[in-house]
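tokens incoming
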């Protein structure tokens, strides 16, 4: 199971969806609420949240866990 959770437009609101999943995990009225839910799961599972824009393009990504490419010095 993927540890990447996408925050995507869904109907008139927003949803969380695991990468590769056919169905959404949860639906929310705002992008902020969906992002908060996705972040909670990603923190527990040491995963990644990928936030999309209303047009579907990626807006931002956040990792919660071991960073394979930590900042240098």
């Amino acid at each position: 199971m993927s540890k990447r959770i996408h925050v995507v437009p869904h109907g008139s609101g927003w949803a969380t969806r695991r990468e590769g999943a056919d169905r959404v995990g949860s639906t929310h009225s705002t992008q902020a609420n969906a992002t908060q839910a996705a972040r909670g799961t990603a923190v527990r599972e040491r995963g990644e949240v990928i936030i999309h824009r209303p047009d579907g393009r990626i807006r931002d990504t956040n990792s919660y866990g071991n960073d394979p490419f930590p900042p240098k010095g």
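note: The helical segments are 31-45.
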